[in-house]
Amino acid sequence: MKKIGIIGAGHVGLVTGACFAKLGNKVICADNDERKIKNLKNFIMPFYEPGLEKIVKEEVQNKNLFFTTSLKEVVEKAEIIFIAVGTPSTPDGRADLSYVEQVTIEIAKSISAIKTKIKKQKSKIYRLIVEKSTVPVLTGEWVRKTLELLTPTGVEFDIAANPEFLREGTAVNDFLKPDRIIVGIENKRAEKFFREIYSPIKAPIIFTDIRSAELIKHASNSFLALKISYINAISQICEKIGGNITKIAEGMGYDKRIGREFLNAGIGYGGSCFPKDVSAFIHLAEEIGISFNLLKEVQKINNQQRLLVIKKARELLWNLKNKEIGILGLSFKPETDDIRESPAIEIIKLLKEEGAIIKCYDPKAIQNTKKIFPDISYCENSYKVAENANLLVFLTEWKEFKTLNFRKIKYLMKTPYIIDGRNFLDYEKIQKIGFIYRGIGINPVREK
Ligand code: UGA
């Protein structure tokens, strides 16, 4: 059992903290957002993540998980401190590390205050400071330099990089059953801590130097984005000359060297990670004199994919002005209420610009979307969206959409047009019912 501190109760921090508590550690989790901490103490989650609320409740009750607004308290109580604050993009696409810097300075100040308090000059204080947020390579070195500069003698610390590979929507499972654990360290002392805290998890642990660990995160996320853009580029070929992209992905995926995962063509990747991380990697490469054109193309293809929806809507409806378009799915992927960089947001914006009347529904993301588009209609279910609609556009592959009664939907709609931005609907069934269906890179037998 270790005393673990987490700074930042966002997606990464909160899941990490809750799961380490579930593994039997004492975890104290800090965030400077007072409301968030107050809510967490009352078991109100700041975002939707399957399974998280249950663990938070249990571990708070078991007295394994604590919340605070005081970073100082974390530094006082925990020996291992994970930095899990946000690293948003600057307007030109670099990673903004000001929160990481601010937190590092605060950690240094708090360690210094503890040292002053105990006053016994000979007693040593040790802290292991771990980067958990996605940060560009060399951040570890900046954290080290900052701490060295601001902490008094008698304070010992190690720096480590332990990038997370959690996906929103399956984050708890990804933490408890990861494919691998990556830890960048400087010495055996830090390695020992990681071996202990990860001992209940059955997964290979790869120990590296800090720079390699930071680069593994960059390289992994960018590779996954590249895989998505690759299949989307092939889907664009299918759009022109036919072929079924889902079958193509299946055929490719059976080759173990390729693998089927992350080969789902559609309206492109969104979320708080891939768009930001690809952009940060391109900038980082540029700063050291390397033009990462491959990743620039990944971005370009991703941006084109969402425009396909507008093109297809025009092909089906001719003019979009005053046409009622129903949007099903707003979050950047299923099982989350997160709409950051969600393709749906840009698609709605473009449809609005063309004068379309938008109605929408999402099982979890309506509240967040209302903040961006207060002026469109939000419905309580998919059938309400279908009423009188000229076109239904599916933008997130929520499970509940797959089992909709499409006969009823057809009856409710003005004209039976469907665009499936995620290629997840059973188009043969839908076509039989009488819909005119358009997927992305799928060319079902065209209607006469
Ligand atoms: C991603 C990575 O998958 C995690 O390993 C990583 O820890 C995380 O970023 C992070 O850096 O924090 P996440 O953004 O939660 O996780 O979501 P993904 O499941 O990777 O999906 C990202 C986007 O790609 C979604 O918009 C999804 O719809 C899209 N996608 C995914 C496709 O368009 N096609 C696919 O085949 C797979």
Structure write-up:
The protein has helices spanning 11-22, 34-41, 52-61, 71-77, 98-118, 139-150, 171-176, 188-197, 210-241, 245-253, 274-287, 293-317, 343-353, 366-372, 382-386, 399-402, 406-412, 427-433, and strands spanning 3-7, 26-30, 65-68, 80-83, 125-131, 155-161, 181-184, 205-208, 324-328, 357-361, 377-378, 391-394, 417-420, 436-438. It is an alpha/beta fold. A 6-stranded parallel beta sheet has the order 3-2-1-4-5-6, with helices on both faces. Helix 14 links the parallel strand 10 (357-361) and strand 11. The model has no long low-confidence stretch (mean pLDDT 94). Uridine-5'-diphosphate-glucuronic acid binds at residues 134, 164-168, 221, 224, 228, 262-264, 266, 268-271, 273-274, 332-333.
CATH class of the largest domain: Alpha Beta
Q: Please state roughly what percent of the residues sit in beta strands, choosing from under 5%, 5-15%, 15-25%, 25-35%, 35-45% or over 45%.
A: 5-15%
CATH architecture of the largest domain: 3-Layer(aba) Sandwich
Low-pLDDT runs = none
Radius of gyration: 24 Å
Number of domains: 2
- Mean residue pLDDT: 94
| N-to-C span | 68 Å
User: Major sheet: order of its strands?
Assistant: 3-2-1-4-5-6
The profile of the biggest β sheet is: 6 strands, parallel
Q: Can you count the helices?
A: 18
CATH superfamily of the largest domain: NAD(P)-binding Rossmann-like Domain
Q: What is the molecular shape?
A: elongated
Helix/strand class: alpha/beta
